[in-house]
Amino acid sequence: MRDYDLQLQVIVVGSSADTFVGHVANMLSDYEVDFTLCGNVYSAVGKLAKNKSEDVLIIGRIEHLSKDQGRFFHIACQYGYTCFCLTDDGGLRNRKPILAAMQKGALVTSDVAELEGLIKKILKDRRACPTEKRETNETQTLIKDEFLATKAELDALLRA
Amino acid sequence: MMRTHDEQISSGGDIRKILLVGDISKAFLDTDSITNKNCEVHASMLDAIDVAAKNNFAAIGVVMAGIPAKLSSALKALREVSSDAKIILLAQMYEEPIARQLVSSTSNGTSVADDYLICPVHANRLHECTVSIQGPAQIETTPPSTIDSTLETKIKQLEKLATEDDLTGLKNRRYIWEFSRQIIEHVKKENGRVTLLVFDIDNFKHYNDLYGHSAGDKILKQTAALIRRCCRAHDVVGRIGGDEFAVIFWHDPQRDTTSDEAERRSAMADHPTEAIFISKRFRKEFEKAELGSSFTKENELSTGSQTPLHLLGPKGKGVLTISGGLASFPRDGSKIQELFLRADMALLDAKRSGKNRIYLVGAPQSDIADIE
Questions:
Q1: pTM
Q2: Domain holding B204: CATH number?
Q3: Within an 8 Å CB–CB cutoff, is residue A46 touching chain B?
Q4: ipTM of the predicted structure?
Q5: For the packed helices B45-54 and B71-81, what is the interaxial angle rounded to 10 degrees?
Q6: Chain B: nearest CA to A104, how far in angstroms?
């Protein structure tokens, strides 16, 4: 876990047996982003309410997140959190939950690959640093060295 | 004795708020008075979990009707965010089996819910219930709570007396009728099906006369235990007369979506498949059980002779059997009276045709043993 990820909280809603959840888990691990897995939307709301971080990304299938007439999106929106929902082609036929989600600022897509783009963008915006997947040891060492050098410069300035 | 909110404050009792979740119009007889009772109401379970996480409620009342199917998941989340609050389920009569299950089920060593009330109730009952399940420390420091606790126990005893059969512990006739009426009203909205099984023990009067009433009572108790074991947790079983029993088979909304589909398909089918399957199994189990085989004839008890009971049943083979009738809503009647009448007629037909069988109302092959 890199230091600059500390503020970002990712909550994945769904069963660990779900292929989408598995895919998301792998991808987040690749970007070294910690996440919490919630089996259902009720447990996710509990996590949101107890959460201290200002930056929260919630990822799940729309059929899970839109339960209870889309109240989850309403709550997430109140906190200013971002929801990313996956819908399948069948889901597109039932537009009501999708519209409700989008009205509350949720991002809805039927393309799993879009999620990776979103993660990259979020990390890029907040880190202003490389957003590549986990690389070789040399790359990681380089990043760490750069960070240590910057920290040393800042410490020197503070002392002055 | 019930104390008012103000009295609770003056006596140092718990003055924390009560959170109510769901459509309270279905739960309380005096919905208007809820606002005066230090309660916060949220129609949505998700909103309630959110609010419960940020506040310290004394109790949470959950109206079960209308709450999404996965109630146990929602209750677990509610418990997680608000571990101090007592969770009380507000159940309709037909939801009692589910409520009982939820109260007895645990998650991480804690029960999912603390208690349940059968609705509609007066709002005061929720407050009484909340006070009566407070921790022992609070009861010690506030003596009036002890009084409330005794009252609550007495109310529970009275409720039990009013709804249960003393001998077998099954539901009584009054409960079965009221439950049937309510469940029919409920499934009408969901195009579901309710199936009623009425059965009695063949030659039971003869058995009672020959071996005495205490032996007869033991048979009734064993029959009750056996039918309870054969049925699903949410089916409601009652003793409605001397040796006459009734079972209400119905759709359980707590089951997962796949089962819901299966149930809907089953409801569209000609026969109540699950009810037939369970009834068949019960009849066979009953026949095999050799109930009362350890008893002796009453006149032999005094002499100490221990002749096992092998005299009753069809053709004197020595086994006890049952005969029954099955009727379904909506196919065989739209009211509970009609269903009982049709099921009773089928039971009589089964008796006339030689006993030890269960007849399905209106089926071309009436004996359910012939139905695949």
A1: 0.68
A2: 3.30.70.270
A3: yes
A4: 0.76
A5: 10
A6: 15
